[in-house]
Amino acid sequence: MKREIQAFIDAVAADEIQHFTADTTEKDFFKDPDGLMAPLAAFIREQIGQDQLAQATLNVTDTDVSVRLEMSVINLPMQDSKTIGKIMETTDEAELNVYAVIETPDINVSGLRIDALAPATTYVDQAKVADQSLHDWLGLQIEKLQAAATNEAATDVPNADVTKPATKKLATKKTAAKKTTRKTTTKRTTAAKKPATKRTTTKRATTRKTTTKK
Question: Given CA atoms 138, 143, 146, 148 in this order, what sign does their dihedral have?
Answer without folding.
Answer: negative
